[in-house]
């Protein structure tokens, strides 16, 4: 089963700011069908709390920082994204919890499929049953 991992992103900085680039098979081991972004997260708020059965993602804290907890039903691993110089590749099958958003954080997500609610598992007990039956 593919594992979540951090990847370094290309940041081209000059006196007028920076441009971040995401390209290539190592950073994006899937075809991108959708880009979405998350912002205005209130202090203490938690997002995620679900798993995807088939969706691949690359998650980037374009601005600010966030902690992402990934649970495969057996082990839990925690990643912190602090700024745009790294991204988190998340394969299908991980229960994710996004928390500890710094003020004004914007999280961008490149995803392998268009939105499909039937790809979500939103109940943790259902997730454990699904994960242990894989
Ligand atoms: C993930 C984290 C990082 C849509 O209508 N279209 C979309 O493309 C998305 C992503 C969501 N929605 C609707 C579905 C829900 O009614 O927006 C509402 C909130 O969606 P969701 O529960 O997916 O939001 P998050 O921020 O908890 O999670 C999202 C991604 O779904 C998830 O895969 O990893 O961002």
UniProtKB/TrEMBL annotation:
What are the Sugar 3,4-ketoisomerase QdtA cupin domain coordinates in residue numbering? 5-130
This chain belongs to which protein, by name?
FdtA/QdtA family cupin domain-containing protein
UniProt source species? Microbacterium candidum
């Amino acid at each position: 089963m593919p594992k979540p991992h951090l990847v370094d992103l290309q940041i081209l900085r000059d006196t007028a700011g920076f441009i971040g680039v995401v390209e290539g098979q190592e950073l994006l081991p899937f075809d991108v069908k959708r880009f979405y972004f998350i912002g205005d997260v209130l202090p203490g708020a938690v997002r995620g709390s679900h798993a995807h059965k088939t969706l691949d993602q690359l998650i980037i804290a374009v601005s600010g920082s966030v902690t992402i907890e990934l649970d495969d039903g057996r082990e839990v691993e925690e990643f912190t994204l602090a700024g745009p110089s790294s991204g988190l590749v998340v394969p299908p099958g991980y229960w994710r919890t996004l928390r500890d958003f710094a003020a004004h954080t914007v999280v961008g997500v490149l995803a392998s499929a268009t939105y499909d609610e039937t790809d979500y598992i939103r109940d943790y007990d259902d997730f454990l049953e699904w994960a242990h039956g894989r």
